[in-house]
Amino acid sequence: MAQEVECKLTIQNSEVALFTTRIEAYFPDAIVSEVHKEDLYYGLPDSTNLFRIRVTTDGIVVTQKYKELRSDGVEVNQETEFSVPTEDLGALKQFFAKLGYLPVVEKKKIGNSWQKGTLTIELVEVEQLGWFIEIEKLLDDNASEREINGAIEQLSEIRNELGLSDYPLQGRYYSEMLQDL
Questions:
Q1: Residues spanned by the domain of 21
Q2: Of 10-19, 65-74, 110-119, 134-143, which gets the smallest average pLDDT?
């Protein structure tokens, strides 16, 4: 398990090249990779408690998050997750269906990721929603409130460095935005 402190901002398609250049300049020694994630969120009927099956080029990860969306738009999430071999996707979906879980929403995300240590910046397009910049800091599961506040401050500093301080933080989860469509 881990805690992630993250924020996301909406940008316009016309700004993608600009912010790619800014992120590369800010993070020149980061590990850069392509993002291609397909998420399927499951839940019980009449429940808002969802979990996710994520299919990537590396395999399948099942994740349940305890989410806290703060009033400033920053998310502090505690995750429990495990991996499953790609060939078991069909069995996994069937297993959850037999337990009564139903697919609620599907999310597809493509773009690029810059990672250095416990910090990740993603510039991604979420199908049906548009372009976003996500900035995430991973913390230990037992991180103190002081460490969480320090991570929030670090995210704010990065937004300033990238010229994003005037962009409002997106205060909703992707799954909620997609469900509203």
A1: 2-180
A2: 65-74
Number of compact structural domains in the chain = 1
Separation between Cα atoms, residue 84 and residue 81, nearest integer Å: 10
Q: Which residues pair with 108 in a beta bridge?
A: 38
Mapping DSSP to helix (H, G, I), strand (E, B) and coil, where does residue 115 land?
A: strand
Coil, helix or strand at residue 158: helix
Helix (H) or strand (E) holding 63: strand 59-69
Kindly report the CATH number assigned to the domain that includes residue 171: 2.40.320.10
Instruction: Note the residue count of the chain.
Output: 181
Q: Classify 60 in phi/psi space as left (phi over 0), alpha (psi -120 to 50) or beta.
A: beta
Query: DSSP strand E in 13-101: where?
Result: 31-43, 50-56, 59-69, 75-84
Supply the pTM of this predicted model: 0.87
Burial, 169: exposed, middle or buried (Cβ in 10 Å; 0-12, 13-18, 19+)? Answer: buried
CA dist 32 and 137 (Å) reads 16
pLDDT tens digits, 31-56: 999 999 999 999 888 877 789 999 88
Residue whose tokens read 């996994």: 92
